[in-house]
Amino acid sequence: MSSSNRPGLLGRLLRRAESLSRGAVWFGGALTLACVFLICFDVLARKFFGFTTGGADELSGYVFAISTSWALAFVVLQRANVRVDVLYQHLPVRLSAILDWLSLVALGVFMVFLTYHASSVAQTSWIRHAAANTPLATPLWVPQGLWVLGLLWMCVVLALMLIRASVALVTGDLATVRALCGVRSAEEEAEEEAIAGERMVRGEAA
């Protein structure tokens, strides 16, 4: 495949990755809401009926870790990760693009190290048949494995973004580099808020 076709292929892969990441975020949100309802039921049952379901706090901890790891990819695809841009917004466009690329590299290196050690933790739990010291006695490799899968997905998405950004940087497509991994400007954030407001108004009007 020629180099001219690679950005198109990478763009399609990134769009597919964004769709999957969005679905993961919705699923994580649904799990979080389920935990909220479980905790509310547990509190009310303990208060008025004198019994408890047990394990609500434990399950909510697992859900928080899993939903957070699976949300990371969507956050970076939306450029919602925090970056200090005091000097960034005053730099030349090419230098800003290089810094955007370097920030993606740094994030990728960090995620690889984090995922490696997280995988080691989950593997140890699997080998030792470790279980939580709770009434549920949850096999720890189950929540840890789901947590690691979210981190692995983040690494896959970062790899796709890094390849796409590298191709764009080499070919001089600085606009793509900025759109892919640059810091969102105040204008972009204001525009997104305006679009979200319009959608809310249309929903209320409907």
Helix segment count?
A: 6
| String of helices and strands | HHHHHH
Q: Beta fraction of the residues?
A: under 5%
Largest sheet: none
By helix and strand content, what is the structural category?
Answer: mainly alpha
Nearest-angstrom radius of gyration?
A: 21 Å
The poorly predicted ranges are 1-6
Tell me the distance between the termini: 48 Å
Question: Overall mean pLDDT score?
Answer: 87
Helix content: over 70%
Number of strands: 0
Overall shape: it is globular
What's the number of domains? Answer: 1
Write the layout of secondary structure elements.
Elements: H1 6-49, H2 56-77, H3 93-127, H4 141-170, H5 174-181, H6 186-205
Helix pairs in contact: 1-2, 1-4, 2-4, 3-4, 3-5, 4-5
Describe the structure.
With 206 residues, this protein is mainly alpha-helical. The chain is globular, with a radius of gyration of 21 Å. It has one domain (6-205). The longest helix has 44 residues, at 6-49. α1 runs antiparallel to α2 (56-77), α1 packs antiparallel against α4 and α4 (141-170) runs antiparallel to α5. It is built from 6 helices and no strands. The protein has helices at residues 6-49, 56-77, 93-127, 141-170, 174-181, 186-205.
